Amino acid sequence: LPEYAFIGRSNVGKSSLINMLTSRKSLAKTSGRPGKTQLINHFLINKNWFLVDLPGYGYARVSKSSKKKFQKFITNYFEQRKQLVSAFVLIDIRHKPQPVDLEFMQYLGEKEIPFSIIFTKADKLKPKAIEKHVEDYCNNLLQYWEELPLHFITSSSKTIGKDEVLEFISDTNDEIEKLRT
Ligand code: GDP
């Protein structure tokens, strides 16, 4: 079955987003404490695709060796990904482009892994500011990329962007199915 991987810096709101997308309150553990999701979790959705919950990257307060271990873990997944269709890189909508995120997107580009950006915690900004932050972020990306990845604006606490993300996945799955037959 096709897989879609969700990844981002710790505390970006990944667990909350996964809970929103799967409509389950306590599926992925959320916590204010970074580094909670340490293993890869697969969630079967609608019996036709897997949501893959990858560990967060870019903790500020862990040792170099455990950082390396995480990196290895993540790259192992991407290198063995057979069913992976696309990754979603989560970015806190309030943040300016950060080296860890840019490096990670660079890595996906090098591996030719398709990805979209999911901006999280949109409820933390006013609508006008949302537009500006997203535009600034995208303009920054254009320094490194010829083409912008698709992006979604979400809030797990206000249930924003859920349908858009799920529709994208279901449309992509339909296309894959069509190509198969
Ligand atoms: P993870 O470490 O990436 O899995 O992040 P979590 O989902 O555990 O969320 C980290 C923190 O951000 C928690 O305190 C959440 O309550 C908060 N959070 C997550 N998503 C949202 C959101 O959409 N809006 C707001 N306001 N807070 C959020």
Structure, explained:
This protein is an alpha/beta fold and 181 residues long. The protein has a single domain, classed as 3-Layer(aba) Sandwich (Rossmann fold). The protein has five helices and six strands. A six-stranded mixed beta sheet has the order 2-3-1-4-5-6, sandwiched between helices. The longest helix is centred in the C-terminal third of the chain and has 19 residues, at 162-180. Mean pLDDT is 89; it is low at 30-37. The structure holds guanosine-5'-diphosphate. Guanosine-5'-diphosphate (GDP) is lined by residues 10-16, 30-32, 37, 56, 120-121, 123-124, 155-157.
How would you summarize this macromolecular structure in one to three sentences?
The protein is an alpha/beta fold and 181 residues long. The chain contains 5 helices and 6 strands, in the order E-H-E-E-H-E-H-E-H-E-H. Guanosine-5'-diphosphate is lined by residues 10-16, 30-32, 37, 56, 120-121, 123-124, 155-157.
Cα-atom radius of gyration: 16 Å
Overall tally of structural domains: 1
The largest sheet is:
6 strands, mixed
Give the SSE order as H and E letters. EHEEHEHEHEH
Family: Belongs to the TRAFAC class TrmE-Era-EngA-EngB-Septin-like GTPase superfamily. EngB GTPase family.
Cofactor: Mg(2+)
Domain EngB-type G: 1-175
Keywords: Cell cycle, Cell division, GTP-binding, Magnesium, Metal-binding, Nucleotide-binding, Septation
